[in-house]
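Following up on my earlier message about coenzyme A. Here are the inputs again, as you asked, copied directly from the submission form:
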Amino acid sequence: MLEKILPTQVASYETFEDPAEATLFPEEEALICDSVDLRRREFTTGRYCARQALARIGYSVPQPVLQGVRGAPIWPRSVRGSITHCRGYRAAAVVKVSELASVGIDAEPNLPLPDGILEAVALPAEQVMVKELLTDAPEVRWDRLLFSAKESIYKTWYPLTRRPLEFEDAVIDFDPADGTFSARLLSHVRSAQEFPRKIAGRWITGNGLVVTAIALSSASGSSVDSGL
Ligand SMILES: CC(C)(COP(=O)(O)OP(=O)(O)OC[C@H]1O[C@@H](n2cnc3c(N)ncnc32)[C@H](O)[C@@H]1OP(=O)(O)O)[C@@H](O)C(=O)NCCC(=O)NCCS
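Thanks, got it. Here's what our run produced:
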């Protein structure tokens, strides 16, 4: 799924199961030694996906992917990347910084958000858009897709800025016809040189999931394939 919504410069790897051959380096193991089984499995397969994706851009010797401030994965110096996992799906995407500035991916089940969550993560205009889209195209859970798009924005934003970004800081607009979305950082968000105020992403549904991805260009600071 991810390959369909990421530009060719980005290497990705996804899996719908937890492969038996997925293992951790001792330094990674130390990060989850007190975690419950579900967390251990998603973390371990996420690292497995990361190593598979890294191999596709030339990092064929497996290496640990540790955890930085606020949980962001620590990639090799010349790499940016992103990891996601949800029930029945784990994935990673990586790109050389010589190719792109940042990448963010997120997967969620194509199911309604729990009660009250849409109101917590969506601005009033987004809530109206989601309700209209749910009426017009109910096969896509647009509430969950909105949540996923915002998670992808954060995963693209944080490694570049090292600053928090709240759900009410960006407004999303979906194009239901072509699998794209645009996002605009609102004026109260302190601008970051590394990050444009308007970016674009792609989305896809399938296998009971909604998946979103953002790839940020190095040169212009704009999104790849953005059309913005
Ligand atoms: C961190 C966060 C984005 C994770 O998203 P999620 O949908 O809960 O979970 P996912 O499985 O898709 O992603 C988890 C992975 O995100 C990555 N991640 C965690 N913190 C991160 C950060 N600060 N920056 C980049 N990636 C991060 C990690 O790789 C993590 O997996 P791991 O712990 O196994 O390494 C989310 O929990 C969060 O804190 N959101 C609040 C901020 C936000 O979304 N703002 C909206 C701005 S518009």
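One observation from looking it over: The longest strand covers residues 100-109. Hope that helps, and feel free to reply on this thread.
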